[in-house]
Amino acid sequence: MLEDISRILFTEEQIKARVEELGKQISADFKGEDIVVIGLLKGCFMFIADLMRAIDTNVAVDFMVVSSYGSGVVSSGEIKVRKDYSIDIEGKNVLVIDDILDTGRTLAFVKDYLIVKSPKTIKLCTLLDKPERKTSKVEVDYVGFSVPDEFVVGYGLDYDEKYRNLPFIGVLKPEVYK
Ligand code: IMP
Ligand code: MG
Prior knowledge:
Layout: E1 5-10, H1 12-30, E2 35-41, H2 45-53, E3 59-66, E4 81-83, E5 93-101, H3 105-115, E6 121-129, E7 142-146, E8 152-153, E9 169-172
Parallel strand pairs: 2-3, 2-5, 5-6, 6-7
Antiparallel strand pairs: 1-9, 3-4, 8-9
Helix pairs in contact: 1-2
Residues 40, 43, 68, 98-99 line the site of magnesium ion.
């Protein structure tokens, strides 16, 4: 598995430190109010587990599955809800969590999808952002790290369901998917 990684972008320690900062920032912004965290599976599972433990207010957690890349490395463009969340979000503070913001289509879609359910507030959080690739206008409230336009894996992020268990975030060698 390790031989497929060309370089490490963020170590386990760097991720831990940044996630703790994000948790503090979120705790301060919500000032003790309850939050419903909605994670977009599967990529967010490790991030959400760590981030929740760094937030010191009441947090409910739910998940959605929206269409992914399948086994490719380029977004198909069309987004579908494959598993919906189930907690009532009307009048609640909603924080949507994704693993990586690439074109921005996923989070833009999910925000539009949830906003019509009348949450009190809706904020977006992503562990990683690829700023060079933005095609959809989406304002993200919390970003862990910016990454270059390369395919990254680890800490929950996969290529073809592999590499999610790497404790760090690294660049996948292009020959693995070409
Ligand atoms: P967007 O809708 O183009 O912003 O795509 C976001 C989704 O694409 C993420 O939630 C990931 O599932 C996937 N994705 C985009 N870039 C990468 C990457 O470099 N590594 C792993 N998954 C990625
Ligand atoms: Mg994803």
